[in-house]
Amino acid sequence: MIAGLPPQIGLYSSIFPGIVYSLFGSCKDITLGPTAILSALVAKYVAYSDDFAYLASFLSGCIVLLFGILQLGFILDFISKPVIAGFTTAAALQIGASQLRSLFGVSGSSGNTFVKAIINFFRNITTIQLNDSLLGVVTIISLMLLKHATIPVGPDSSSCRVRFAKLWVYVLRARNALVVFVGSILAYILYVQGWTPFALTGKINGGLPHFGPPPFSTVVGNRTLNFTDMLAVFGAEGLVMPLVTILESVAIAKAFAGSKPVDGTQEMIALGACNILSCFGQSMPTTGSFTRTAINHACGVTTPAGSLFKACLVLLAVTLLTDAFFFIPKTVLAGIIIVAMTSITEFGLVTKLWRNSKLELAVYSLTVLVGAGVGLEYGILCGAGLDVARTLAHAARPDLHHQLFKVGNQDCIILTLLGTLTYACCEHVPRQLRRRAGEHVHVAVLDARHVQRLDYGVAENLISTILDLEQNHRFLLWNFKESHKQLFEDIHPGFSGRFVNGPSIDQHILGLEPIPMR
Amino acid sequence: MIAGLPPQIGLYSSIFPGIVYSLFGSCKDITLGPTAILSALVAKYVAYSDDFAYLASFLSGCIVLLFGILQLGFILDFISKPVIAGFTTAAALQIGASQLRSLFGVSGSSGNTFVKAIINFFRNITTIQLNDSLLGVVTIISLMLLKHATIPVGPDSSSCRVRFAKLWVYVLRARNALVVFVGSILAYILYVQGWTPFALTGKINGGLPHFGPPPFSTVVGNRTLNFTDMLAVFGAEGLVMPLVTILESVAIAKAFAGSKPVDGTQEMIALGACNILSCFGQSMPTTGSFTRTAINHACGVTTPAGSLFKACLVLLAVTLLTDAFFFIPKTVLAGIIIVAMTSITEFGLVTKLWRNSKLELAVYSLTVLVGAGVGLEYGILCGAGLDVARTLAHAARPDLHHQLFKVGNQDCIILTLLGTLTYACCEHVPRQLRRRAGEHVHVAVLDARHVQRLDYGVAENLISTILDLEQNHRFLLWNFKESHKQLFEDIHPGFSGRFVNGPSIDQHILGLEPIPMR
């Protein structure tokens, strides 16, 4: 409905992606379906015609699949643990807050960020419904009790008791389904008696979707748009959809995978296949849904086949069970979602980051604040941006370890260069060299044993600094790679006389011509 | 005129920034003034009222000054040598091509990129003027001859000859002024005889500018806009102007500084002061101008006081010498600019980069291609973007040096971690550890002597990988910093038993419990 499509399209969009994902997906918890962000993105195209939604699914599926085939999964390495944790926290806050409305039967819209959801809730708080609130709170308390209940196996494990304990395990696992069932029965009984105290899910406009290839032409008003016209409507901006598809789904996959690696490339292939194939059955663009994934997780799903199970349930919902689903009280669903959310907020990370890495805590906080205040996707972008800035800052200001020592009566200093010396440190390294070489040092040694890469600009600036300081100092460039020596020689022919190799530097220092007295 | 302002504003905008820059500036060659890019940016505000141009100068000056005061000069470290060289080459190509029109007296506009200038030139080639072409080519040949002329000091250095040689040095240095002078005299003589064979510079609408504070309110149509309204007109997009101001000026400063460092912070302060103070004398936003800086450089300027000299000349041009400047043939100016451009293209870098660093050559090429085809500022952005991508790729895929060795009958491997291990390598490092630890290795040692920083995600993934592999391997974490040990212990209490210190690892390996037989 956010996308401006008939509500059943949202259900159709949960069926086929679920089936396809169970075949290609690699994350057990992920549940694919239409999401608020993607729906909002597709809405402006649907304003022309519904056909755009199905074509968008097909095209963005193709692009995501292409990303997967090109093995671009490595891009996801740039979404760090603090960003994922911040995203999770912000998403849980937002989703939890947006359910307050249904939980208390308050009217009005919920808002698409945590802050807006809270504001809207308190703005409409006078419309609170006692019955819904009561059932909602009872649902939450029941779920909490069932979640923390222990299995009653005493010392006298009689056959009957063991069997009861086994049953109890299943009851605990199925607690989400159980409260839905109990809530629906209650609503049904009261309904039969002529009383509807709760807001119910209501009629699902069902039936099976129409099958067929995605529309490559459409009619808008009295004008027929061919495929090229439709592409022009999407424009370059249309590329945002596949990017959001990947970003949302993989952020969720990483969030629920914990410290286990997520195969980004495989996820891209799965997501692409889901979007391409599902649009043959009237599906809009789909991606990982945080709420549904969290509920899946809370229900204890253990393999991607859970997606298939979910798809079957939705299929039942739109065909045979429309009447049964009618009676599910909205407040019960809200209660389930809120309980699922409480278990996934990652506040524990905050204290660990506080003790060990304040900068990463800043990344986490920025992601949470922007995510909860402006929007989840902006939260991820800001967090990832700060991470990139952090990486660039490290590249620009590498720590140069230095050590003073004496050989004979010469004061020497050794500066250790490490790893990759990129263009960004091409002012910093020569500046450090100039500072450390100071007045009292006769010989400065640059130790490049651990240098892997060295940019042109760094070499150029090092050369000009060394040539400049050589009136009062001697320089030795120790254990440079052959390729780096060549670079120095190429920039300044004759420079390579300063390069020395070998395990000990002392002999080379002793062999130096002394600096003429001033 | 690009900005939609009266032409004399362009001249006024060259006077005061020149004076102020001579006081605050740190780069000898830089010439400040209105540029094509800034003019195009300011044009849409001038469409409301000229007052916006002066206020834009004031406000963007304030922002640039603030950048300087906040010591944000380090941002400019992220514009690498290949980007600067690529920008220089693209700028020289574009400016040279845009002068072809004046050189050959061809009509039509010149276009704001190299590609467009060339296309426009050939589109209007039929309107070529013989006289202009002739004078232009003669100008270029004269300048080339003067530039490469040697000073005729023979073995018989008589006093007269020495004096002549000294004069000759000044003639060679003043060659640009000389050809302008000769060209103007020629045009004047022909003009007096009633013949105007060349396109001339023409009348400069002069007089002194009006002095006064920048306008904090203005009238558009019959509506008075106060300061807040004017700010609203600029909007967030107005922030592009100070950024372009900094980017253009510092790119030029770096290009002409060679391998000497450029003090970005001081340049920001100078640029800010120039824009703030000049707007009191009817000046639009100004920044470093590539063409004029290159001519300054070609004229052999040696201190920032050259700016003052230039400001005085422009002041003379708009007051006393309007008649003299009338006769300068445009083709002579075009010839001077083209010769100045030939001396600053940096094609020599290409071969050096080809031999030593193909990736940096890609950065250079991208900057040139985008700069010449789309626009100079886009060239810088694309080049800088590719540089950032390069840095991130290095951060994500650090080389891990490994070495196999034997202690007793145990096969061991040592993996050396280097520098900064950021979030981006948090999948890569554990993957490498898993691969290297392979089947035949009993003990894997992680050497962290040279690790400076280590992100949370890397530690977390290392721990889960080690715990996973520990059934078949023993792990030793060697020479980790105390802070890193604490991080590991914080994530997984009890993990710190694997940390060892000291110069030799062999004793620690011998002290390990053997792995139980399977």
From TrEMBL, chains A, B:
Ranges of residues in domain SLC26A/SulP transporter: 1-365
Main subcellular location: membrane
Transmembrane region(s): 52-76, 167-191, 230-253, 308-328, 334-354, 361-381
Alphabetized Gene3D superfamilies for the sequence: STAS domain (3.30.750.24)
GO biological process: transmembrane transport
Cell location: Membrane
InterPro entries linked: SLC26A/SulP_dom (IPR011547), SLC26A/SulP_fam (IPR001902), STAS_dom_sf (IPR036513)
Membrane topology: Multi-pass membrane protein
CC terms in the record's Gene Ontology section: membrane
Keywords noted in UniProt: Membrane, Transmembrane, Transmembrane helix
Listed Pfam families: Sulfate_transp
Keyword presence, RNA-binding: no
Protein name per Swiss-Prot or TrEMBL: SLC26A/SulP transporter domain-containing protein
